[in-house]
TrEMBL record, chain A:
It comes from the Archaea. One of its GO terms (molecular function) is sodium:proton antiporter activity. The chain crosses the membrane at residues 6-27, 39-59, 65-90. Pfam families: PhaG_MnhG_YufB (PF03334). InterPro entries: PhaG_MnhG_YufB. This is Na+/H+ antiporter subunit G. Keywords: Membrane, Transmembrane, Transmembrane helix. PANTHER family: ANTIPORTER SUBUNIT MNHG2-RELATED (PTHR34703:SF1).
TrEMBL record, chain B:
Pfam families: MrpF_PhaF. This is Cation:proton antiporter. Signal peptide: none annotated. One of its GO terms (cellular component) is plasma membrane. The chain crosses the membrane at residues 6-24, 31-51, 57-77. The keyword Metal-binding does not apply. Keywords: Cell membrane, Membrane, Transmembrane, Transmembrane helix, Transport. It is a multi-pass membrane protein. It comes from the Archaea. One of its GO terms (molecular function) is sodium:proton antiporter activity. Its main location: membrane.
Amino acid sequence: MNALAALGEALVLIGTFFYFLSALGLIRMPDVYNRMQTSTKSATLGSLGVLVGTGLWAVGDGLSWAWFVKATVIAVFLLLTNPISAHALIRAAYKSGIPLWQGSVVDKYREHIEAKASPGAAESESTEEGGEE
Amino acid sequence: MIGIGVYLALIAIATLLSMYRFMVGPTTPDRLVAVDIMTTITTGLMVLFALYYRRMIFLDVALVYAILAFGGVIAFARYMEGGL
């Protein structure tokens, strides 16, 4: 039982460390797209660690298994909905005209929109540019 | 083993950093990203408090908070696209 609590506590430590890393990426990155990329990914991973770790820790402390089940339900919900909200936010940011950082080299979404607007011209342009490395 | 204070300190530092981004963020999506990260962190904090106070009802609070935060972020995204 005590090993379970130790495993859960280690998972909670890893999760909170990833929370810290996500907030650090929110500070350090140059524009909103890079900030969203780093922050949302590591915050989702940190939530998984904290929630599953707290469930295991509670079971190791002598509480019932319902704690683990409820915490895992919240973790699965966050794992499903966090990328959706991030995607919606960043799509709204692109459509409301926020410019990319000047160091960005690939803009696949603009190519996609141009290809949908005028199929012939944009296709030849994209093959000429050769977006893939 | 280590103690809950270390985890609460890490969560507090993360929340303060995202509050900084919320205050100085040059555009509206920056602030919304900061709010999104803060709600995710607060969900984990509520689950930690549920274990600290030994009350299972806080887990239900965390689940409802996660659902409401998701709906709020989706609503803000729709508003910024001009569809709301």
